[in-house]
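Reply to dn_fold:

You asked what the input looked like. This is it:
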Amino acid sequence: MDAMTASAAPSPLARVPQPAALHVLGEDPVERADARRNRTAVLCAAERLFAEHGVDNVSMDAVAAAAGVGKGTLFRRFGDRAGLARALLQESERRLQEGFLHGPPPLGPGAPPQARLKAFAAARLDLLERHADLVAAAEAGAGGARFLAAPYGVHRLHVAVLVAEADPAADAEFAADVLLAPLSAESHAHWRRIRGMSRERLQAGFDALVDRLLPGGGA
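and this is what came back:
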């Protein structure tokens, strides 16, 4: 009876939402040839215009004109500029997720959770160093849009799992949001561009946060 009771004890992750977003690594739905051409044209045009003028200075109308597609096609496919930014970031995000789900340690399985958290931060900071403006556009929106985006759901679950592994008594759901806050595009832009902090300082600060929140378990 005691063994049955013990086996029925709730997991420390029981209150952490399990998002369907974990499936974003799969294959894209099959597209018609014309839809695929339009998508490619739009993404190429957006990437070029964003690089030349900055994400905030490019309208959806300009992207549609440069891609040679109608505005209706653009808005139906991507919704808004945030949706377009997310589509451009998809491959970078896929590589990040592939790394922490299946890659070698310390980012992937096989290292202590504290080391994996620090490696995740390093990978995320690398992405922000390359695509900060694009990530900011993808995370933009009213009502906490960043928290509702599919990548955030995947990152949040990954971090929560590692927190629970390091400390089963911790509130993994809350701690995951705390640890992800310094890795947002808004935080990155403020610290790097306004405060003049180095990439190395951001990493060191995150590592120190992990060490204080979840002591032990390796570097």
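Residues 1-9, 19-27 have pLDDT under 50 and may be disordered.
Hope that clears it up.
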